Amino acid sequence: MNKAKYLGIWMDHASAHLMEFTVDPIVTKTIETNIPHHSHNFGKNENLIHHKEQHQAQEYYKKLGQLIKNYEEVILFGPTDAKVELFNFLRKDQHFAKVKITVTQADKMTENQQHAFVRDYFSKR
Length: 125
Fold this sequence. Notes:
The chain is an alpha/beta fold. 37% of the residues lie in helices and 24% in strands. Helix 1 crosses helix 2.
């Protein structure tokens, strides 16, 4: 990746689907998170579990940030708050000051729908 100026990321808390906008067919690269998805375990270890999940989320966002930092413009979209959390994480870092990042709500989508969304969004540029 990273031969293009524009990047679309459909994401939730489980994975991120990165799609460069190029003249070539769009290819999706998937980054999985290692945040466990389990029911709430109430008890003594609840704070420990919460802290561990927050740390894992930060690592997920750092990994995505490393891929994002060389693009001019990024659209974050998806059905959960993960995109907003990533946006807030990136805005705290000056390395992303020159990257235009837009966040928008989107439903679950097939890969073809994600590609069409990215193509439509960046074709207007």
